[in-house]
Amino acid sequence: MRVVVYNIQEFEKQTLAKANAKVHDLTLISNPLNLDTIRYAEGKEVVIVSENDNLEKTILDALKRIGVKKIITRSVSLNHIDLAYAGHLGLHVANTPAEDDSPKSIAMQTIQNLNSWVNNKCLGVACHCAFDCSKKSSAIL
């Protein structure tokens, strides 16, 4: 998948790259996702954000307009994403819900989410899509 990772910290880069193992085309951006930096998401299927990125209606509209289909947050919290509006737009949303919140665990969960999407599988407890989809019936809980 073609992916842009926003708000990535230096300590996250190596663990995410190792977890990815050159499977997905990752673009790593240290800047937060906002209207000035959204251009980095052009041509990408997925954006990966941190809980410091505010994905409100304006940002979600802009992401949808440029063709982004999926969002992963590198956090358990989803308070920074307007899930109802993302669902209205048909955007898939996932988080990294494991209790282990080490950089390695978050990186592994993030790549596992990408791999599940590539294999057309539901993400189970990491899935926070605000709409029904055919994949939810095959969820691994």
Automatic annotation (TrEMBL):
SUPFAM superfamilies from the UniProt entry: Formate/glycerate dehydrogenase catalytic domain-like (SSF52283)
Keywords: NAD
Pfam families per the UniProt record, alphabetical: 2-Hacid_dh
Domain D-isomer specific 2-hydroxyacid dehydrogenase catalytic: 5-98
Taxonomic superkingdom: Bacteria
Name of the molecule in the record: Lactate dehydrogenase
Species: Sphingobacterium litopenaei
